[in-house]
Amino acid sequence: MNLTIYKFSASDTFLDFEFESNGPKGKVRKIVRYSPQNAGGITYFNLGFGDLNPKTGKIDDLAITNNQDREKILATIAATVLEFTQHFPDVMVYATGSTPSRTRLYQIGISANWNEIEPLLQVFGYEQNTGWQPFRKNVNYQAFLVKRK
Amino acid sequence: MLTEINMKQSKSKPSRTKRAKKVKDYGNDPFFIKKAEESRAFLEKHGFPKELLTKK
Question: Which of A7, A41, A52, A80 is most buried, with most CB under 10 Å away?
Fold first, then answer.
């Protein structure tokens, strides 16, 4: 990725990634988890993303950090997708936000990083009326599926 | 319950990512479990793009 991203680390399995958001609200640990899942006999990985609550050690899915680094966070998540699919090139990754507005953030993130993503990944978006279709900018999708080309 | 997962790793390119023992396995975190189950329900209802199901 050529865009500015946070430095991130991976677990031994390369299913869990962690980075630290740094801004006006301080440092916040962010976790990206690729969970193996199966639907209709087809295996894929679900991309989950959230803030690590330092008090509970659990993921806080609806936390609003407001650290004024949205683009950098989205670019970092995109970088973990590229890293994950480099290690597991034959798998599909499914992603959707916890809320429609967060799903739209993923859409914005894909669009903003399209020049880096498009040469490497097939990206599909699910749209209510048309179903799955190749990703296009400025279309509101409910969910995304990506796979290495 | 998963019975088989194709987790064949690519060995063609070295990783640029630092593996860190401090990054724990969040597979049992309730949030990620819930998200994965929601994704399964969605994909069982709507299916997958056929273009992604074809073998390379």
Answer: A80
Q: Is residue A61 domain-resident?
A: yes
Yes or no: say if A116 and A146 are a contact pair by the CB < 8 Å rule.
Answer: no
**Which of B23, B39, B51 is nearest residue A18 as measured by Cβ atoms?**
B23
User: Which range marks the domain in which residue A13 is found?
Assistant: 8-148
Cβ contact (<8 Å) for B47 and A132?
yes
Residue A21: exposed, middle, or buried by beta-carbon count in 10 A (0-12, 13-18, 19+)? buried
A12 → chain B, closest CA residue: B19
Please give the ipTM for the structure prediction.
0.90
Cα torsion at A14, A40, A122, A96 (round to 10°)? -70
Residues of A in contact with B11 (CB under 8 A): none
CB-CB neighbors (< 8 A) of A133 in chain B? 49
Q: Which two tokens stand for residue A9?
A: 């680390």
Task: Compute the 3-state secondary structure of chain A and give helix, strand, coil in percent, each to the nearest 5.
Answer: 25, 40, 35
Is residue A127 in some structural domain? yes
Residues 6+ apart with CB under 8 A from A129: none
What does pLDDT average to in each consecutive run of 10 residues of chain A (149 residues)? 81 95 92 97 96 91 81 92 95 93 91 91 95 95 97
User: Domains in chain A: how many in total?
Assistant: 1
